[in-house]
Amino acid sequence: MADYPRGLSAFSLEGKRALVTGGNRGLGYAFARALADSGATVAFVGRGAEANEAAVRRLKAEGIDAYGIGADLTADDEADRAVDQAAERLGGLDIVVNNAGVCFHNPAWDATDDEWQQVFDLNVRAVWKVSLAAGRHLRDNGGGAIVNIGSISGLIVNRPQAQAPYNASKAAVHQLTKSLAAEWAPHHIRVNAVAPGYVKTEMAPVDRPEYRRMWIEDAPQQRYATPEEIAPSIVYLCSPAAAFVTGSVLVIDGGYTVY
Ligand code: NDP
Question: What residues does the Ketoreductase domain cover (predicted)?
Answer without folding.
Answer: 16-155
